[in-house]
Write a structure and sequence with these properties.
Length: about 80
């Protein structure tokens, strides 16, 4: 059997746009839990749409260092 090319798995590739001030701490938080970003996003989506048995994804025990609110607002306006 020939190896699969990237994106030829059972799960289709999806693209989303997320600002760096959110994505970078999200990446760090997911790494702290030992999970992967795709799994956390799938768990969140299942919970968000009230999928039967779905639970909110586990968060890291400690908050991840992020920019201040003023910095976040400055990058979005």
């Amino acid at each position: 059997m020939a190896p699969r090319k990237r994106g030829e798995g059972l799960t289709p590739h999806r693209t989303i746009r997320v600002e760096g001030y959110l994505w970078d701490p999200f990446h760090a938080a997911v790494a702290a839990t030992g999970a992967d970003k795709s799994a956390v996003l799938r768990d969140f989506i299942a919970w968000y749409i009230h999928w039967p048995g779905a639970k909110m994804p586990k968060r890291p025990a400690e908050p991840v260092k992020t920019r201040t609110t003023d910095e976040n607002e400055a990058t979005t306006t």
